[in-house]
Write a structure and sequence with these properties.
This protein has about 300 residues and is of the alpha/beta class. About 50% of the residues lie in helices and about 15% in strands. The protein is built from eleven helices and eight strands. It has an eight-stranded mixed sheet with strand order 3-2-4-1-5-6-7-8, sandwiched between helices. α1 runs antiparallel to α2, α7 runs parallel beside α8 and α9 packs parallel to α10. The longest helix has 18 residues. The chain is elongated and about 65 Å long. The chain binds guanosine-5'-diphosphate. The site of guanosine-5'-diphosphate (GDP) has 17 residues, from α5. Keywords: Cytoplasm, GTP-binding, Hydrolase, Nucleotide-binding, Ribonucleoprotein, RNA-binding, Signal recognition particle. Its EC number is 3.6.5.4. Its main location: cytoplasm. One of its GO terms (biological process) is SRP-dependent cotranslational protein targeting to membrane. Part of the signal recognition particle protein translocation system, which is composed of SRP and FtsY. SRP is a ribonucleoprotein composed of Ffh and a 4.5S RNA molecule.
């Protein structure tokens, strides 16, 4: 494959004539370029270090097959390792429980939780033929509750009312009762976010998790957040047993290095990517395609 990185690496090894394999001496220079490419894509530094160490192990001594140059071979190894790191695991939503299957949405304010809740509702209705209920536990921002009502209608799902004078845990209990009585397959629970990590927020979402026992706890993260996504992922991953990630705003111009950071830090699969503000802007995450984008 041809990429800016392949070109750079090829130039680096141009003078190494007769080089039959990737060696310790040429790999160091090449890995420096890979490291730069990952940092330019906003992958968090500790994640870059780990990744480079893994690639170095794999690259050393590897035969360069046929007409491939060491630069291209290394990019091949990097691409494969990137895709493997970002792509392990199942990508669709797990619904293998006694209904209603509860899905808890977690993440910072502005990450795209409410939008993604509606996108997922539509996905589950259309692709999995499920009866879907949504509810908002964001009692701090009445506008967020209204926003969920609007987008849920667009998704063709049902919305369970909640209001600012209720406690999130009471809302959760009432919604799950309603979902049971009315035979919903799935209950999607949108939660409050803050602009930054905050202990009260974490305590609240942990309590919600304990009450709801969700089959999926999805961490919603904005791809444009770059390096900050790593810290956010660590905080949510420490607080909650996450089951998957939704990486939003991949239609933006970021290289999407956050994917590598959040995948490596949380250890859970990136299940979906948000690709527009619209209700149908949700795609199953494609790790291989994304690897090419991260490398630029
Ligand atoms: P929340 O605070 O986490 O619930 O975030 P919202 O769902 O309200 O989203 C915040 C903003 O990001 C809104 O303007 C959304 O339209 C926008 N948004 C969410 N997901 C995407 C996406 O995948 N692509 C784009 N371009 N915008 C998105």
């Amino acid at each position: 494959m041809a990429s800016a990185l392949t070109d750079k690496l090829s130039r680096l090894v141009k003078n190494l004539s007769g080089q039959a394999r990737i060696t310790e001496s040429n790999v160091t220079d090449m890995l420096r370029e890979v490291r730069m490419a990952l940092l330019e894509a906003d992958v968090a530094l500790p994640v870059v270090r780990d990744f480079i160490a893994r690639v170095k192990d794999k690259a050393l001594g590897q035969e360069v097959i046929g007409s491939l140059k060491p630069g291209q071979a290394l990019v091949g190894i990097v691409n494969k390792e990137l895709a493997a790191t970002m792509g392990q695991g199942v990508s669709d939503i797990n619904l293998a429980v006694q209904p209603p299957a509860v899905i808890l949405m977690a993440g910072l304010q502005g990450a795209g939780k409410t939008t993604t809740t509606a996108k997922l509702a539509k996905h589950l209705i259309e692709k999995r033929k499920k009866k879907v209920l949504t509810v908002s536990g964001d009692v701090y921002r009445p506008a967020a509750i209204e926003q969920l009502k609007t987008v849920t209608a667009q998704a063709g799902a049902e919305w369970f009312p909640s209001s600012a004078d209720q406690k999130p845990i009471d809302i959760a209990r009432a919604a799950i009762d309603y979902a049971r009585k009315h035979h919903f397959d799935v209950l999607l629970v949108d939660t409050a976010g803050r602009l930054a990590i905050d202990e009260a927020l974490m305590a609240e979402i942990k309590a919600l998790h304990a009450e709801l026992k969700p089959v999926e706890t999805l961490f919603v993260v904005d791809a444009m957040q770059g390096q900050d996504a790593a810290n956010t992922a660590r905080a949510f991953g420490d607080a909650l047993p996450l089951t998957g990630i939704v990486l939003t705003k991949l239609d933006g111009d970021s290289r999407g290095g956050a994917a590598l950071s959040v995948r490596q830090i949380t250890g859970v699969p990136i299940k979906f990517a948000g690709t527009s503000e619209k209700i149908d802007g949700l795609e199953v995450f494609d790790a291989e395609r994304h690897a090419g984008r991260v490398l630029g």
